[in-house]
């Protein structure tokens, strides 16, 4: 009689554990059977109710993820529409100065659209990998600014597994866009050269280095006096990251952007 | 005596009896092994609401024989997001099963009105009287 009771309780405990394991796998189709009014029935009923609450939270979390994905998708689509409109507008412009302004604006928009595109494709929807972003962004800028018979190569030295959220990626993307665009526009009159992009992390800071081997800045270049909108943006956006800009023009132009972890 | 016995004038529902006591405390008692879904929760709440005359009243719930209460029913009983005529709720529990259900209801669904679990009817009634005062 006692053995039968023990066997029965052992089966019931196993049944409850099976249900708990199903919930751990996010399978909420199972429930424990509550037969009477004893302690095991109470535990079983508690597990059932926990499963109901967990299922409801999981569904709600999935819905929120889907919504966030949808928002990033829509933002990216809207930014691409603006970019396409600028593209269409540029077809009617003959003045090179205005045309350049439109291309610059379009590339800034594209650098932000890429952040949203990569966010909705990412696993956790909150962070994107810097290395992939840098390479995709630089290829985009290259195809937008490439001159005929140009031979400008990118070299990357990017630490793996550097992930940033949207608050960091938007300014970082814009900073990269400005530096690379400036190199394309001013560094290589012979249309030949090299742009190095490095990113690493120390204990306290991130370090982004972008340098070209072009003609460098003009002698006595003064940032406050001589900088264009692109360079002003680099300083403003670095400030937004609580970072600092180092500018060097010994061999070409080299930017060192440091910002805290 | 810790036995809540429905009087003849009690309203009998599919899983509950509900009636108004002479002391102004409404009582509702679950039937043995009641498996309460949203439908029965709404039916019960309507019966309780129908006891309203001119002022809000306390409610004594005998949940000692409840077998299960689904999530939507717990949420509905918590009075969150709906108008209610009751101003406090005492829930009587006894068996391990009814204690788990009661504690789950109190812990996760957090009723908007003052609510407590009891295993003694007299103490529950005393507490409800204080809530009225």
Please name the defining characteristics of this protein.
heterodimer; A: 261 residues; alpha+beta; Heat Shock Protein 90; 5-stranded mixed sheet; 7 helices; elongated; B: 133 residues; alpha/beta; Transcription Regulator spoIIAA; two-stranded parallel ribbon; 8 strands; 34% helix; globular
Q: What does the oligomeric state look like here? A: heterodimer
The backbone outline of chain B, from C-alpha atoms, is globular
Largest sheet of chain A: 5 strands, mixed
Strand content of chain A: 15-25%
CATH class of chain B: Alpha Beta
What is the architecture of the domain at 150-261 in chain A at the second tier of CATH?
A: 2-Layer Sandwich
Q: Portion of residues in helices of chain B?
A: 25-40%
Low-confidence parts of chain B, pLDDT < 50 over ≥5 residues?
none
Written as H for each helix and E for each strand, in order along the chain, the element string of chain B is: EEEEHEEHEHEH
By secondary-structure content and strand pairing, the structural class of chain B works out as alpha/beta
Class of secondary structure makeup of chain A = alpha+beta
Tell me the distance between the termini of chain A.
Answer: 66 Å
CATH fold label of chain B: Transcription Regulator spoIIAA
């Amino acid at each position: 009689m006692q053995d039968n009771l023990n066997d029965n309780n052992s089966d019931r405990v196993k049944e409850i554990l099976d249900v708990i394991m199903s919930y751990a796998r996010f399978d909420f189709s199972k429930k424990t059977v509550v037969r009477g009014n004893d302690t095991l029935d109470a535990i079983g009923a508690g597990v059932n109710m926990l499963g109901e609450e967990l299922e409801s939270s999981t569904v709600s979390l999935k819905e929120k993820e889907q919504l966030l994905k949808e928002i990033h998708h829509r933002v990216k689509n809207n930014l691409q529409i603006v970019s396409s409109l600028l593209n269409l507008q540029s077809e009617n412009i003959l003045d090179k100065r205005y045309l350049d302004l439109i291309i610059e604006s379009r590339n800034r928009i594209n650098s932000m659209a890429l952040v949203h595109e990569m966010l909705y494709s990412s696993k956790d929807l909150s962070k994107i990998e810097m290395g992939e972003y840098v390479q995709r962004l630089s290829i985009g800028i290259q195809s937008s600014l490439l001159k005929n018979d140009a031979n400008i190569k990118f070299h990357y030295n990017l630490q793996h597994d550097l992930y940033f959220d949207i608050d960091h990626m938007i300014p970082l993307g814009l900073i990269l866009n400005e530096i690379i665009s400036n190199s394309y526009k001013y560094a290589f009159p012979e249309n030949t050269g090299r742009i190095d992009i490095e990113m690493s992390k120390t204990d306290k800071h991130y370090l982004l280095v972008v340098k070209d081997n072009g003609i460098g800045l003009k002698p006595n270049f003064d940032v406050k006096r001589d900088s264009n909108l692109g360079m002003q943006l680099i300083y403003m956006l670095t400030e937004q990251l609580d970072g600092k800009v180092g500018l060097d023009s010994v061999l070409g132009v080299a930017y060192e952007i440091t910002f805290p972890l | 005596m810790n036995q809540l016995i429905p009087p003849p004038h009690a309203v009998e529902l599919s899983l509950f009896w509900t009636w108004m006591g002479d002391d102004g405390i409404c009582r509702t008692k679950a039937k043995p092994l009641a498996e309460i879904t949203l439908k029965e929760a709404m039916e019960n709440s309507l019966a309780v609401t129908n006891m309203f005359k001119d002022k809000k009243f306390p409610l004594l719930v005998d949940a000692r024989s409840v077998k299960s209460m689904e999530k939507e029913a717990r949420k509905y009983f918590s009075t969150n997001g709906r108008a209610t005529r009751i101003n406090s709720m005492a829930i009587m529990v006894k068996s391990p099963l009814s204690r788990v259900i009661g504690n789950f209801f109190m812990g996760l669904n957090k009723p908007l009105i003052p609510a407590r679990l009891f295993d003694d009817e007299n103490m529950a009634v005393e507490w409800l009287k204080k809530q009225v005062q």
